[in-house]
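Quick note —
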Amino acid sequence: MGFIKNDWRCICSMNNKEIVKSILENNDITTFDDFTDVMAEIQGQLLQTILDSELDCHLGYEKSSHGAKEDENRRNGHCKPKEVKTKNGSFKVKTPRDRAGTFEPIIIPKKQTMLDSFEDIAVSCYAKGMSLRDIEALFSDIYKAKFNKDQISHLISKVNVEVEKWKNRPLKEFYPFIYIDCLRVPIKKDMVSIKKAVYVMLGIDITGHKEIIGVWIDDNESATFWTNVLEEIKGRGVEDILFISMDGLTGLKEAIEVVYPITITQRCVVHLTRNIYGICPKKEAKEIIQEFKKIYKSPDKSTAEFNYNSFVDKYVDKKNVVKKVQDCMPHIYQIMEYPAEIRHIIYTTNPIESVNSTLRKVTNGKGSFPSDESVIKVLYLRIDELEKKWTKAIPNWSTVLSQLCDLFGDRITKHL
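Predicted structure written out below.
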């Protein structure tokens, strides 16, 4: 390889002005596109020269040399021209061959047709929700490199190994807080597009940092499948969870208690508020919801009880609304048992709904996905980008951790 480096230094040591003058004299360059085309051609010629020089180095003599040779190995022409793609354009080169078949080029290895990290570009674009057709157009317009959808899919396929590792990675032993929710994604099944349930689990670990514990797919959302998910994370190392915030899926509380019997389940108060809003008379809905918010935003349980009784007295003629609020009160009284900082974390599933909103950006508008695996792949890439931004603990974590230690003792301290 030293021969090649010295050869390159020799080229670079030429008078740069003369090189530029020669290029301008021999090429009609009037636009930037003309410039990139010429530079791609020059790059191709230079790399072809380096390839040939590599063979000189391998054989130990230059072409047309008539001196004594070290062995019987000789040149054997060139392979068929191959198109090499770079971010500066495409060009064709012919890899030189030797009779013994021992020559392995370094500058452009055999079978390699790309010199730049098109894989990384494709994966990054795919993670941002671009379709294969969009990426194909990007490569063509920006890099003047022609890829079809199958080739781009192959570039992205290197993510498959990372996805499998992520899906089966060992998990932390303890999560103080977990949020669970589902979103719907159209996926083809038996040639028919159906909206499948994508189960998403977001955790907050002992350091206060957020982590997407995993995503799973099933035809529909059910407590039974959530039981399977919880059994899986337990098998992957999760020994204990303090709180799980969730929506009102039937049987979900009981499913959690089967796997984690001492975990506290908390209904999302925001979901409860939406349910109440749905049965309110339209003209009075805003006022009723404001009165209901006074209840769950109360500083303590006694104040919440007072505000609840005031609500009942005020809307006694609206029996359906009062009955709905009455059904919600056990979930509201439960959050009142904890300090305001903990209450703020567990009273709503908004953190995971925010995650799901971000995930929808890479699934919506893409039509039906061909398989569950393709959905998991695009979601994994988006999750990877999200988690890179989660560098700080959630607000007031030191206060929250201290409160948790007071409330739960050894269940917390043994993990510190």
